[in-house]
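Supplementary Methods. Inverse-folding protocol.

Structures were first reduced to a discrete structure-token string of length 381. This string, shown here, constituted the complete conditioning input.
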């Protein structure tokens, strides 16, 4: 992490000739509770030790500048004339945050930022939320906007809805902003209150395996899923599927499509699984936790239909290994990582076999990550 901080800072100083404020904003993993956040349900994420550094300071010209070091992209813009960019899509997260702050009548002057990250692109560890949060946090410091962390995550989320066009829930922004070292957060997305659970399994760990694929149309498929859930909720006269049970859903089975029935059923069941997962962690019952994780994947694959052949292959392969207690796709889906709960001693042989099998099947490499659970968005002193 120190390396990316140094690089962002040095580039900032060399380019803009003054000292920046430095913010580190982490990515996240999610143990279980997928596609439940925008349904008012529970999620179980944690911030990780990979993330994005934002170096930010005031500009003494009448323009603002943004540099993304990872992709070598450099943009100069006018705060009062922001339009979504087709060429540099990353900048839409920045513009989106500015636009939302302007809607809230927060006064911004011109600024410069340099962004540098180490979250693998397309891994489903939420580099977008890390960037939005890091940026809004930096602006809040720089211009003394007086925003609370909760207000900031909603600015980040709205930026993504309105400028990027993904109608995401609040999980990623919450986990990235409020992460607690060594803890996972059971977040109730209805009340936006979380309970933290320290993770110190003696003989097991979470390991991520990246398929290294990101299928196009993932964003529109995401928005379609959300719209389908909202449609079912409306028919049931509730605002979110969190409010209903399987029994309630059965009552309208005849008037919705079988596809939407399965999607809503998945959501209701996944919300329940997430609460059970918290109990399993409390009881140190990792076998049970693993079963819930496998069941989550099954629902995402067959009911909610947001998986893909590469993710399914990794999960099916994990099932053959007794050292793996649970595995599932993580995040929005259609690519990115699986999260695997593995016995420590079995981890190396499992990785060796699965990497080989993946290469043979898809003629490409998967990538393995070991992450630590880390603190949320913060200033770097
Ligand atoms: C993406 C969204 C989140 C959440 C997950 C699926 O990461 O940004 O809000 O909906 O997908 O659980």
């Amino acid at each position: 992490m120190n390396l990316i901080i140094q690089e962002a800072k040095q580039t900032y100083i060399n380019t803009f000739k003054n000292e920046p404020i430095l913010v580190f904003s982490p990515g996240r993993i999610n143990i279980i509770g997928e596609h439940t956040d925008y349904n008012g349900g529970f999620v179980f994420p944690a911030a990780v030790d990979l993330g994005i550094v934002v170096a930010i300071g005031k500009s003494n010209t009448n323009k603002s500048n943004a540099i993304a070091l990872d992709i070598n992209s450099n943009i100069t813009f006018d705060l009062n004339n922001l339009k979504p960019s087709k060429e540099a899509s990353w900048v839409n997260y920045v513009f989106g945050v500015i636009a939302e702050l302007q809607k809230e009548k927060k006064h911004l002057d011109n600024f410069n930022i340099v962004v540098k990250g180490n979250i693998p692109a397309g891994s489903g560890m939420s580099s977008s939320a890390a960037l939005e949060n890091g940026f809004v946090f930096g602006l809040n410091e720089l211009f003394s906007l007086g925003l609370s962390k909760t207000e900031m995550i909603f600015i980040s989320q709205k930026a993504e809805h309105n400028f990027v066009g993904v109608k995401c829930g609040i999980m990623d922004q919450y986990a990235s902003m409020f992460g607690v070292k060594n803890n996972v957060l059971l977040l109730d997305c209805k009340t936006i209150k979380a309970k933290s659970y320290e993770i110190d399994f003696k003989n097991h760990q979470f390991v991520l395996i990246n398929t290294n694929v990101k299928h196009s149309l993932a964003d529109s498929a995401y928005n379609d899923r959300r719209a389908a859930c909202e449609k079912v909720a409306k028919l049931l006269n509730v605002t979110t599927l969190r409010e209903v049970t399987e029994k309630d859903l059965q009552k309208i089975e005849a008037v919705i499509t079988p596809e939407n029935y399965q999607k809503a059923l998945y959501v209701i069941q996944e919300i329940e699984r997430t609460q059970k997962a918290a109990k399993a962690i409390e009881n140190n019952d990792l076998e049970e936790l693993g079963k819930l994780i496998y069941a989550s994947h099954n629902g995402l694959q067959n009911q909610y239909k947001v998986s893909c052949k590469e993710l399914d292959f990794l999960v099916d392969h994990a099932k053959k290994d007794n050292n793996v207690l649970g595995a599932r796709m993580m995040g929005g889906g259609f690519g990115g990582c699986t999260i695997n709960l593995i016995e420590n001693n079995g981890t190396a042989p499992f990785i060796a076999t699965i990497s080989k099998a993946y290469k043979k099947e898809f003629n490409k490499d998967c990538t393995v990550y070991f992450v630590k659970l880390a603190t949320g968005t913060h200033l770097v002193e």
